[in-house]
Amino acid sequence: MVNNMRYDDYLQEQLKNPDVKKEWDDLQPEMDVIRAMIDARIKNNLTQKELAARTGIDQADISKLENGTRNPSLKLLKRLAHGMGMQLKIEFVPMQPLKK
């Protein structure tokens, strides 16, 4: 009964399915980038329009990035970071062992 479940509970239930879990895990890096972009923009009290003015990137393109309908290049991510007075940092972290 999905209607009575909280989203987090529903998600956890769905992630028990190995196929769903794999798809979720495969999308996680993109979701992390999107969340980091949005969080940084909000932390700097910027609208998409203001960030567009600072970076020279169309507001529509910033919206597409934040909605996940456009994949950013590293060059574009660096422009966004610079427009928010930040630097881009990318890191590799060890993979978590599979839970049994």
UniProtKB/TrEMBL annotation:
PROSITE patterns in the cross-refs: HTH_CROC1
GO MF annotation list: DNA binding
Domain HTH cro/C1-type, first and last residues per copy: 37-93
InterPro entries linked to this entry: Cro/C1-type_HTH, Lambda_DNA-bd_dom_sf
Source domain of life: Bacteria
SMART domains membership: HTH_XRE
A Pfam short name: HTH_3
Official protein name in the record: HTH cro/C1-type domain-containing protein
Taxonomic classification: Bacteria, Bacillati, Bacillota, Clostridia, Lachnospirales
